[in-house]
Amino acid sequence: MREYTASEARERFAEVLQAVEQGNDVAITKHGKPVARITRVEHAQIPARGWATKEGWSVTMSDDFNAVPEEFEDYT
Question: Is the pTM of this model over 0.85?
């Protein structure tokens, strides 16, 4: 595991990301103590095609959707 101090990680962020992309875990230390570990995300899940389409959804709105409530009539 590669190790960087917090200030080194900030200055060399591109290098840290490259190390993680290559499969290396990276430890970030502060005052000599580990405070974080960065690991590579494996196989990001992509939602199935069509999961957010309108098929299968039903949307209804009340008849008075655009009506102004009585308490707010002075503001129109």
Answer: no
